[in-house]
Amino acid sequence: EMLREKNSRLASVRHHHCFHVRAERFDFDLRLLQGATREGRYFIFNSRTMTFYEDEENLKLLCNFLRSSEGPAVREALLMEKRVHYLKGEKLVNFMVEPKPGTKWPSNLPRFENRQDAIAVCKELCKLQFILRCEKRGKGELGMMRMRDFDEAGYFTWIYEGDMTQSHMMTAALVVGFLLCVCFPIWPSFLRVFVWYLSVSFLLFIFLLITVRALLFLFVWMVGWEFWFLPNLFDESLGFADSFKPVISCEPTMPGQLPYRLGVGIAFFSFCYWAVTQPSEFDGFVSAQGDFLKDLYAGTLLSDMSQEDKENIDKPKVQSLDDLLKNLDAEIDKEDEPGDLEDEDNLDSMLDNLLDVEEEIDEEEE
User: Fold this and answer.
1) Which of 56, 217, 295, 363 has the fewest CB atoms within 10 Å around its CB?
2) What pTM value is reported for the model?
3) Can you state the percent helix, strand and coil of the chain, rounding each to 5?
């Protein structure tokens, strides 16, 4: 019985040892599979979260986020005479692992836990041709490369353009708007008047906004601060919504600008003093501005045509018979005028000669 118990214990130890060795081998093989790159379309990620990016549609969602204003900073360059956006592979990986402060990561996209996961996804983006590896030849110029694999030291151009539905709709709207502008002469009268008033009001609003921004900046700058209302309003690199962010910005001026601020302040207040002490000229300026606005809204600011000419602008201009006869008489009169003048000059010269001859005869008789 003791021998049987000893044999059973030895068998259980052997079984446990074999199972432990097989488990270790299985874990080792699994780590090899997880660390290996994929050769086909599917591969094994390092974490369960990364299985989300096995789907190509989910990769497109990630690219939409990376291509947005919240994504990593990109630069512009020329690739085969085409303007593209590019960035370095290391910056792309760094952003995917640790986004810049203030970045709003989409809630429907899992975050990356380590650099290996981010590099694996970047390799997938290269194979799907969402990004293209290129070489930097000069300032603002890129060239093609034979190597297409992802490398953090390389430069990559964005090929993925995202959902083009909005772009197609904007293109169609642009074409329709152009056709409507071309057909402006056949628009109804009330619609043309409405568009004119709307255009003039928008133009005056823009002019007023620019003037107010400039005056606010001037007043605060003379005190020692750079104050801007809607500082990114005319920044072409930003989108429509981002152009209105932030609403205001106020920073101290650079050192050494005190003489310039004093000079501008003296000039400005001198102009204000002149405007106050010359009421007649200033009143005339205000009156001229009022007339300008009236003519602008009435549509007569740049018009030198009568209302009848405006209404008959599309009618063919054919001269009547009376107009043709008048023009013919005028031409005949013009042709006769030089001859009549020559005859009068001849008569005057002949009379002068006769008078001279008579005076000479009178002198000889005397």
Assistant:
1) 363
2) 0.44
3) 60, 10, 30
